[in-house]
Amino acid sequence: MKTSSSNTKECVWENACFTHLQCPFHTVNSLQQVVLTTSTCLNALSCSHALFHCDQVQYTLVPVTGWQDLGTAFLEHKEQVCSYFVLINCGVNVDLLETLQPEEDSIFFICDTHRPVDVVNVYNDTQIKLLIKQDDDLGVPSYDDIFRDDEGEDEDADGGDSGNESDGSSEPSGKRRRFDEAGFLFLVPVSEEICNCHPLSRTCIYRREILFDYEQYEYHGTSAAMVMFELAWVMTKDTKDMLWWSIIGLTDQWVHDKITHMKYVTDIATLQRHVSRHNHRNEDEENSLSIDCMRISFEYDLRLALYQHWSLYESICNSCYTSCSFKLWSMNGQKKLQEFLADMGLPLKQVRQKFNSMDMSIKENLREVIEESANKFGMRDIRVQTFGVHFGFKNRFLASDVVHAAASLLENVEKDESATDNFIKALDCLSRSNIERLHLGIDLAKKKLKAIQQTVASCICTNLILSQGPFLYCHLLEGTPDVKLFSKPLALTLLCKYLLKAFVFSTRNKRCKVLPLIMAAPMDVEKGTVIVLGIPPESETSDKKNFFGRAFEKAAESTSSRTLHDHFDTSNPLDFKDCMASVQNMVINY
Predict the structure, then answer these.
(1) pLDDT on residue 6
(2) Residue 188: is its pLDDT beyond 60?
(3) pLDDT in the model for residue 401
(4) What are the C-alpha distances in Å from 80 to residues 35, 60, 126, 168, 365?
(5) What's the average model confidence in pLDDT over 64-74?
(6) Beta strands in 114-200 (DSSP E)
């Protein structure tokens, strides 16, 4: 990224850490404008903003919630004098050029954690620039395996006559797509109709199978915020704020169960090295003791949501890990909780008041006391590797606190405000100059966690989770308390994972413990739409890969159901209320 006043030199964006950056931002000068389109990754957006600000690059920020928003935003801005589009956490898992139909001079930079990456985006490096770390294993099939390049075989099969003019170096024009006037020809996978009638149908079927194996599972790669931070690092423009945002981005993946434990621990170690570097660099600076200083620290902390901003009792009751371990929806679970508190030797008065009001003598060794008692009750993973931050001398937050706060502000349903307004408020809470907004988000997060816990208890106690053969199914009906909250994807994701974990702890049926869960909730009562989410079976060793996106699509096709697959996460379709039988058949035969 260089402004028009800077000298032309080799761009560090082409460093070995990243791929597909042959046309980097140093070609953008201060007189050109960039359209910055982002989904829910507020942290990567904050890092991007800092990078643009450093180089005085003008940009237009466009929040989007799905594919329709992305298409609309592109149509609104493509007529402007702008040929650069930066997509954050959206756009990588579809053929973007086919979806948006851009002009040939439009360049897209995509920093997206969704996987798998669409093969067309991978092999088209003229208009699509992927910001992906090279150590991310994408598992992309080889070019020759998925794209037709069989001119010799075609000539043999068709008697040397393909029905198109040939100069010895080209293929039938109907089998490829032209992306630029300079003659860059990009070959696309052949269609099913061609496979049925073409002499090389076996080769075509083989390629379809390769693509199916590659695309059938949805999962997540390295956090987009981490990618943007490491990009800033190679450009020597990283700051402590950007490091904190990348930590929040990784923690968001962990809170919403998007990555494996091994991936989380590996990325934590990477960020820990950066934290040590920044702390060492700033330890002698004058502002290290100022009232507005920022100090990041690596910690082994408790898996108790928001406990430093809540009472310890409320946090234990509304955290997924402890609530499921104690089975707090049952009388025996409540009794076990009381035994746990007694074993710790903490007075109920202290446990039930806000954490900040607890006696200092109790708080000094609270984590050790809780961990010791948790081990006795079978909770051996009560501690987790994470990071904390101090803003000045008063405000202290864990990374998970900020994740819960930002997600609650982003999906706030208490006020009738637009998605863009909620987005801006959630973005504001990431700034250390807007602590009040962060505390507001924490208050909303408490309400959300309470609603999730109560809904889980209700579903378990009333047997709303049904076994539908190869999967479990739960449908929240209209009139359910707080049902409006679960019309949002992130809230529904937390509820779904919490509910499946609770069901595994409560059921005696061994077969049901290894089944995935499909959950449906009303989205718009007036329109009659339903949001549906599918998650894989509960397992500590799960690879976090989700096949429901493809299953939902096939089920919708086979039943001609009214569906809208608008989410960037393909496992979240809409309006799916009349084809559950087809979903069941798809899962059985998947």
Answers:
(1) 32
(2) no
(3) 96
(4) 10, 11, 21, 41, 59
(5) 88
(6) 114-115, 128-130, 176-178, 185-187
Eight-class DSSP state of 536: P
Residue with tokens 């990348």: 246
Strand order, beta sheet including 395-398: 294-302, 383-391, 395-398
In 345-488, which residue ranges form alpha helices assigned H by DSSP?
Answer: 348-352, 360-363, 366-376, 399-410, 419-428, 435-461
Rounded to an integer, what distance in angstroms lies between the CA atom of residue 440 and that of residue 243?
23
Residues in the chain: 590
Report CA torsion sign: 387, 391, 395, 400. Answer: negative
CA atoms within 13 A on the CB side of 559: 21
Check the CA dihedral 340-346-348-354 and report its sign: negative
Strands 33-38 and 395-398, by their bridges, are unpaired
Q: Between the CA of residue 417 and those of 17, 149, 412, what are the distances in Å? A: 40, 52, 8
Residue with tokens 């494996």: 260
The answer to whether 217 and 545 are in contact (CB under 8 A) is yes
pTM for the model stands at 0.85
* pLDDT score, position 42: 80
**Burial code of 318-333, b = ≥16 C-beta within 10 A, e = fewer?**
bbbbbbbbbbbbeeeb
* pLDDT at res. 462: 92
Of residues 105 and 268, the one with the higher pLDDT is 268
For residue 177, what are the β-bridge partners? 186
Segment 114-125 shows an average pLDDT of 90
For residues 337-366, average pLDDT: 91
> How far is CA 503 from each of CA 183, 243, 487, rounded to the nearest angstrom?
58, 37, 21
Ranking 282-286, 464-468, 529-533 by mean pLDDT, the lowest is 282-286
What is the per-residue pLDDT for 576? 58
For 161, left (φ over 0), alpha (ψ -120 to 50), or beta? beta
What DSSP letter does each residue of 395-406 carry, written as one string?
A: EEEEHHHHHHHH
Question: 306-310, 410-414, 435-439, 567-571: lowest mean pLDDT where?
Answer: 567-571
Alpha-carbon distance of 483 to 154, in angstroms, equals: 58
Does 558 or 116 have the greater pLDDT score?
116
Give 464-521 as a 3 state SS string.
CCEECCCCEEEECCCCCCCHHHHHCHHHHHHHHHHHHHHHHHHCCCCCHHHCCEEEEE
